[in-house]
Write a structure and sequence with these properties.
With 273 residues, the protein is an alpha+beta fold. It has three domains: 3-100, Aspartate Aminotransferase, domain 1, CATH 3.90.1150.220; 109-187, Orthogonal Bundle (Arc Repressor Mutant, subunit A), CATH 1.10.10.10; 197-271, Zinc/RING finger domain, C3HC4 (zinc finger) (Herpes Virus-1, 2-Layer Sandwich), CATH 3.30.40. Helix content is 42%, strand content 14%. It has eleven helices and eleven strands. The strands form four sheets. Strands 1-3-2 form a three-stranded antiparallel beta sheet. A hairpin with a 4-residue loop joins strand 5 and strand 6. Helix 2 runs antiparallel to helix 3 (29-43) and helix 7 (139-150) crosses helix 8. It is an enzyme of class 2 (transferase). This is Non-structural maintenance of chromosomes element 1 homolog. Its main location: nucleus. Component of the Smc5-Smc6 complex. Its EC number is 2.3.2.27.
Length: 273
């Protein structure tokens, strides 16, 4: 029996794959392809053939996504799912186990106390509210915000902020600025959009941008230089867009040509660790 005929039927393979993903902060697609191959080799050796590797079978992206789809069908009623996102700089695809409720911060993080969750929200507020769409906050300012919210000492605040970075909430740049991690942006997408709004829907109040190409949030990339235009891209998405258009005029019906550099959003990619 082929993998494609088995991936839709929930089995110990699905359960093991789900357990692995839940135990990891995030898993790259290339990593998960290898993991699924090893799981199948161990649990369902009868589906491999003599022509395949004696170590592990060959798994395609389509087969992986088929297993993920079957898992999501099982766990969606409980308010969770396995989601995938692209790294905003490298374009690498990652899979994560996330909550599907609006306030995912509260739903999926029972290891934090309510005051700690409130401090996370306040740091996110400060990151998004920074002028000029830099989407980052100095480490010292972030630590001070935690200390003010939780009434902690500087040392305690630094320890808690380090834990948040280790847990995948934030990333620390080489310039000691705190930014939202790709995992957080994926998991908190609905929360972020509801709380801060999209620039294209409300130029005066909207604070977030959606990539014209991949339709995901952009906190590292470029926006159109026309102030009233909300068109934005991740760097790799912009390269792809330009390759598809001989004259890449902005799809926002303004006069900007995307062969020029747009207005930068977020930190410089090379400062990310």
């Amino acid at each position: 029996m082929s993998y494609s005929s088995r991936m839709d039927v929930y089995s110990p393979t699905h359960i093991t794959l789900l357990t692995y993903i839940r135990s990891a902060s995030s898993c790259s697609q290339s990593q998960l392809l290898k993991v699924l191959a090893k799981i199948i080799r161990a649990i369902e050796p009868e589906v491999t053939t003599a022509s395949q590797s004696p170590v592990e079978p060959t798994i395609t992206k389509e087969v992986l996504d088929g297993y993920i789809s079957a898992i999501n069908t099982k766990v969606n009623p409980t308010g969770f799912k396995i989601a995938k996102y692209r790294d905003q700089v490298s374009g690498t695809i990652y899979y994560i186990f996330i909550s599907t409720v609006s306030d995912a911060i509260t739903k999926s993080n029972t290891s934090y106390t309510p005051p700690e969750i409130d401090s996370i929200k306040k740091v996110i507020d400060d990151i998004i509210d920074q002028d000029s769409f830099v989407y980052s906050l100095g480490y010292v300012n972030s630590s001070q915000r935690v200390g003010q919210t939780l009434n902690k000492t500087a040392r305690e605040s630094n320890m808690f902020l380090t834990k948040l970075i280790d847990d995948g909430w934030f990333e620390l740049t080489e310039e000691d600025r705190i930014v939202l991690s790709g995992r957080s942006i994926c998991e908190l997408k609905h929360y972020l959009v509801e709380r801060y709004g999209l620039y294209g829907e409300d130029v005066e109040k909207g604070k977030l941008f959606v990539c014209q190409q991949c339709k995901e949030l952009v906190t590292i990339g470029f926006k159109c230089k026309e102030n009233s235009c909300a068109v934005s891209f991740h760097a790799k998405c912009l390269d792809f867009y330009n390759r598809l258009h001989d004259s890449p005029r902005c799809p926002g019906n303004c006069n900007f040509e995307w062969t020029e550099a747009g207005r930068r959003l977020g930190v410089l990619p090379e400062t990310l660790k």
